[in-house]
Amino acid sequence: MKSDLTPVSTYNLLIKYADNVDLLVPETSDVDLATEFQGIMAWASPNKMVINFQKTKEIVFHRSNPRNIVYPAAIGVIEQVLL
User: Fold this and answer.
1) Per the structure, how many domains does the chain have?
2) Which domain holds residue 38?
3) In the prediction, which pLDDT does 2 show?
4) Which residues, at least 6 apart from 73, have a Cβ–Cβ distance to it below 8 Å?
5) Which of 5, 11, 21, 37 falls between 20 and 30 A from 45, CA-CA?
6) Which pLDDT tens digit goes with each residue over 21-48?
């Protein structure tokens, strides 16, 4: 069965597992993480899915030793992990 859960932007990637989803949003995306996450939440409710905010994390990757690191603003309900 094909899922109707898709990313808002074609630049972003959803990787789906049985009961988990990974969302990849590159720095150069035309849609930010908050907008993509709102799309997932909007999909979850009518599909009778519950998002476990205690297990949901935002992981921010960056190049080692960059000149100017600019971290994105955290989404209020999600823990942000900087790597």
Assistant:
1) 1
2) 13-82
3) 56
4) none
5) 11
6) 899 998 889 998 889 999 999 999 999 9
Comparing CA positions, the residue from 77, 75, 76 lying closest to residue 25 is 75
Which residue matches tokens 């599909």?
47
Residue 7 located in a structural domain? no
User: Is 76 within the bounds of a domain?
Assistant: yes
Which of 35, 27, 11 minimizes the C-alpha distance to 72?
27
Residue 69 carries which side chain, given as an amino acid letter? Answer: I
Q: What tokens does 81 get?
A: 């992990």
User: Which residues are registered as beta bridge partners of 14?
Assistant: 23
CB 58 within 8 A of CB 78: yes
Question: What is the pLDDT confidence band of residue 74, given thresholds at 50, 70 and 90?
Answer: confident
Name the one residue in this structure whose structure tokens are 């035309």.
Answer: 30
Per-residue DSSP letter, 65? S
3-state secondary structure of 28: coil
What is the structure's pLDDT at 1? 47
27 lies in some domain:
yes
